[in-house]
Amino acid sequence: MRWLSSRGYQAIDLDTLLRARTSGDALPARPVLITFDDGFQACADHAVPVLQTHGFTATFFLVASLVGDTSRWMREANVNLPLMSWERARALASAGFQFGSHTLTHPRLPELDAARRRVELWDSRHRLEDELGRPVLHFAYPYGAYDAAVRASVADAGYATACATRSGLSEPGEDLLALRRMTVHGHDSLLDFACRLRTGLAARERLGHVIKGVARRLTGRAGPDRDRGFG
Predict the structure, then answer these.
(1) Domain map of the chain by residue range?
(2) Using an 8 Å Cβ cutoff, are 168 and 180 in contact?
(3) How far is CA 44 from the centre of its chain?
(4) pTM of the predicted model, to two decimals?
């Protein structure tokens, strides 16, 4: 976050991105959108103070029926982490942080029938709006899992944007209900982070793409037979 701030990046929320994509509103010269899925208490305890130090905002996607509980969907992996409370979420919303829906129970939406999918999408949105006292227009797919039917259900439930987990930079003209994001891993170096921000790839991934590109150009010069062999 210190590196982002020193390079002149400004954190925006999904409302700002939505206005830019639909109404042509101007974005800052270097916009960045920071998101956290699931609503872990640790994110509120540790990430929020760092973000506030640098004047950044972020969007948290909450699992509406488990707020203040634990990450029950992770128990099969023997992981059970505390989730932030409604009181904490309301305080963060008042401090300028944004909240979106991550369903009621964190299921894999493509595996649900239409009726159950509707409950997960509609009821989570209404629960969040009731508890936070503000509109909820943004969604994140649990596990990044969605298909055409799920996307249609998300639109029908009244969400204006939905975040996937497909890695890459979000470009103008991208489907607002399938926004790309970049996962930042704990083992990433600062160089990896900077490369992801500029190219959508970690440093080692970017280097691999460059090497493959050079190899393709070199083999292309070797003749058509060699070129076809690498196709």
Answers:
(1) 2-183, 187-231
(2) yes
(3) 17
(4) 0.87
CATH topology assigned to domain 2-183: TIM Barrel (3.20.20)
pLDDT tens series, the chain, 231 aa:
999 999 999 999 999 999 999 999 999 999 999 999 999 999 999 999 999 999 999 999 999 999 999 999 998 889 999 999 999 999 999 999 999 999 999 999 999 999 999 999 999 999 999 999 999 999 999 999 999 999 999 999 999 999 999 988 888 999 999 999 998 888 888 988 888 888 877 777 666 565 666 666 767 654 444 333 322
The tokens describing 17, both together, are 């991105």
CB-based contacts of 166-173 (< 8 A; 24+ apart in sequence): 167/200, 167/201, 168/200, 169/199, 169/200, 170/17, 170/33, 172/21
